[in-house]
């Protein structure tokens, strides 16, 4: 018996070994597995922002698949006969009826729908947060420009994916949203009407829209996004992850933990945390109460009709644009009041977003590879530009909810809109200037700290009566963080790197470079550091730490750190 | 010739006949008037108290309302304001008892302060009896919508079909300003369509018949009394039950949802990421 028991086991071993051998022989599996498992990833909480985005996408695929089992993508009209009493007998579309059925008749349907919708909002939000992390730390620089572009495409596709999903339940709100989408199409000069007729298969709303949006939402866009995410991840592995500067971290290495087992556990665990948090929110907080909105009908509309937040900035742009931008020429109406704040603004923002890595390359004249991240303060102009863009975006987003804000705060919507129009042009430049100044100030403080050490708060009276505050020197590791970055200067100071200043490109590059680096705080050089230490040795006026005092100062230092 | 004619006429009509005829006509007219006209007046339950109510109401009116609305409810001169909201008390001739019951009963009148529109005060300044007396006085100035009878406000017997009809009518006529769930919304220049949570059935009904502030009048030809009742039934049914989805975030739509997703969703997840990041170092 024991032999028969051992024989199948050995057979299994053989089978396993056979499979492994086959995989190894055919695709070099052992190399891949080995190489991948030992792939090292650096550790920082902000590197997990993109992971939130990835995991919410996985949650969306899982819950979305569940929803497709019960959703009916049809605009055919039927009387509603489900369990929700206040809609009994009303004529609704099959899409709406099936969405209500998912909410009330399918076991667990409502929570899955709510998880799907909350995950969608958080997916786009985490994508934006991830993008800003990448932007502010300079992770888009060579060789990662293409991955930045892929990310930007993913972000815009996520917005369209979200919008098509928002439209599918065919409730009053989603129908209103589609109507606005049609208005955006119609506002495109010359081809607008054709676009609308092509898209809706005739007059609005027609009968083909929901089936078309369904295919776009569950097949077309997810497939493209999956492919782009795969490329995004592949490039991430290929380029290796960037890391923050630190002791022992250089442009040529990656300091961190191996993928297996540390990151496998961390990433897997984080997936469940993300799923858990979203499930928790979905269990307690309702989202998109389609039963309360009622079925779509082109005649009614509800106060407070807003898109989901990621479209809110475009809605806000439309709300801020004055109506007189619309004009008639040769018998045609040009709705610039709709066209510019929607189609044009999306294209401009996308263009700037995609082009930014190259814009900065022109300004810096730096075509080297960068694997070490910037501390945002060390790039004052870039950080300022980022905060400026963020301010612009947030003002548009707030404008998208101007009626809700006016209602909640008892403000006049007219005054609020005028105020926001003003702020849209005034606040972003102020935000740029303030951010840049703060960054430069922080750099100066870093310089001060690197050269003269940390203030200990210990006041010492010298024999001749002078009072000084004792400064404790930083240890090597701390100091490294403050002095490691490179000096960045306008290109004119480095004629070798600049282009010919007489061509147009040269002039632009010149101007751009000066805009970026005219205001700067030079990083501490080794010579300065040496000089500062030497200076301290003599017990200078400002930060006297002589070697004999070093021991006591260090004690103070460690005490303050503990405190 | 003339004598013959006058003799003839003298013979045909007795001199007293004219008097008799006038007396008869007067009796008939008066009788008809008595038979036809007081019908609505006698339908008022407190017909006997009405005269005193009107008198009491007039006193209250003169003491509390006449400054803006004029001593006979004819409307007042423009009141000076610092903010350009030149509010003149409008004429109350023909606004009816329902308007008084709504405006005073919800605390919108007497106007607590000058603003884009009257808003409900924290405290109602009058008892229901006093409100009824003022309503009787204003109703006596000219015919207008009456305070609705109890039968139009009793929504307990509404069927599911009627509530469903109410939701449909509400969505078509009311949701554009008051929002899909009656959470209210903004109008121009600081005016608003107020939220309809915790508003009594009678006040909702009166708002529809009188069209207070920016609201249009929905008289019985536009929305029949039964349909008004159905609308009230729909509002009360969704406001009395918990929302199936959980916390409705004020029924404000995607704005409050987006804010929640950012603050709670992204906030919690970044908190978790920071926590996980701390574990390693």
Automatic annotation (TrEMBL), chain A:
Biased segments, Polar residues type: 553-563
Annotated keywords: Cell membrane, Electron transport, Heme, Iron, Membrane, Metal-binding, Respiratory chain, Translocase, Transmembrane, Transmembrane helix, Transport
Membrane topology annotation: Multi-pass membrane protein
Source species: Kineococcus xinjiangensis
PANTHER family per record: CYTOCHROME B
PROSITE patterns from the UniProt entry: CYTB_NTER (PS51002)
Region annotated Disordered, chain positions: 532-563
Known cofactor(s): heme
EC number of the protein: 7.1.1.8
A biological process from GO: respiratory electron transport chain
Protein's UniProt name: Cytochrome bc1 complex cytochrome b subunit
UniProtKB/TrEMBL annotation, chain B:
PROSITE patterns, per database record: CYTC
UniProt keywords, alphabetically: Cell membrane, Electron transport, Heme, Iron, Membrane, Metal-binding, Repeat, Respiratory chain, Translocase, Transmembrane, Transmembrane helix, Transport
Coiled-coil regions listed: none
TM region(s), chain numbering: 259-278
Record-listed heme c 2 binding positions: 174, 177-178
Reactions catalysed, as given in the entry: a quinol + 2 Fe(III)-[cytochrome c](out) = a quinone + 2 Fe(II)-[cytochrome c](out) + 2 H(+)(out)
Gene Ontology MF annotations: heme binding; iron ion binding; quinol-cytochrome-c reductase activity
Compartments reported by the entry: Cell membrane
Post-translational modification: Binds 2 heme c groups covalently per subunit.
Protein's name according to its UniProt entry: Cytochrome bc1 complex cytochrome c subunit
Domain Cytochrome c: 52-142, 161-239
Record's GO cellular component terms: plasma membrane
Gene3D superfamilies hit by this protein: Cytochrome c-like domain
Keyword Iron part of the UniProt annotation: yes
Binding, heme c 1: 65, 68-69
Assembly mode: The cytochrome bc1 complex is composed of a cytochrome b (QcrB), the Rieske iron-sulfur protein (QcrA) and a diheme cytochrome c (QcrC) subunit.
Primary localization class, coarse: membrane
UniProt entry tagged with the keyword Repeat: yes
InterPro entries: bc1_cytC-su (IPR009152), Cyt_c-like_dom (IPR009056), Cyt_c-like_dom_sf (IPR036909), Cytochrome_c_Oxidase_Subunit (IPR050597)
Xref: Pfam families: Cytochrom_C, Cytochrome_CBB3
Recorded topology in the membrane: Multi-pass membrane protein
Organism: Kineococcus xinjiangensis
SUPFAM superfamilies, alphabetized: Cytochrome c (SSF46626)
Top-level taxon: Bacteria
EC code(s) of this entry: 7.1.1.8
